């Protein structure tokens, strides 16, 4: 809370990431940190569809919209903080998607990889404040953010690989059945 300049403590944090290979089989992930632990039963994946391949902003917007349309429709748990893997652009898209759903009280922070993409050099983009913060590599708040971001990344990659493998298996099976005819 202090490091990011948040008004209140962030008890529930949700983090989003998008994984794809050159736009193919894009998958969005949402992981949940609540009650001082990762809540694996609340993780969600989103198969991104009808988006220009490689358009990470549109993919992020779709994942956020799908997640929070459902949360608001079902009176689900609203996070105190939304982290997005990416910089100013992804954080801006997240803020816009949440605002369209009337979720203006949720804080949004983009987690941009630092120079040379080395851990500990992340830039935290606080959306709405127009500022970016770099915490010391030893800061416990940065460690928590890295842990949550890394879990979102891992969860997105696993989903993406499964989706890509399924598409290739389906395509191979179709090719075999059509050549048999």
Output the keywords.
181 residues; alpha+beta; eight-stranded mixed β-sheet; 3 helices
Summarize the structure.
With 181 residues, this protein is an alpha+beta fold.
Question: What is the helical fraction, as a range of percent?
Answer: 25-40%
Total strand count, please?
8
Radius of gyration: 18 Å
Strand count, sense and barrel status of the largest sheet are: 8 strands, mixed
Low-pLDDT segments = none
Shape: globular
Distance between the termini: 64 Å
Residue-averaged pLDDT: 88
Order of helical and strand elements: EEEEHEHEEEH
Q: Decide which structural class fits the backbone.
A: alpha+beta
What is the tally of helical segments? Answer: 3
Relative strand content? 15-25%
Describe what you observe in this structure.
- The protein is built from 3 helices and 8 strands.
- β7 and β8 form a beta hairpin.
- The model has no long low-confidence stretch (mean pLDDT 88).
- It is globular and about 50 Å long.
- 34% of the residues are buried.
- It has helices at 56-73, 88-100, 140-180, and strands at residues 13-21, 24-34, 37-38, 44-47, 81-85, 107-112, 123-126, 131-133.
- Strands 1, 2, 3, 4, 5, 6, 7 and 8 form an 8-stranded mixed β-sheet that branches.
- The protein has 181 residues and is an alpha+beta fold.
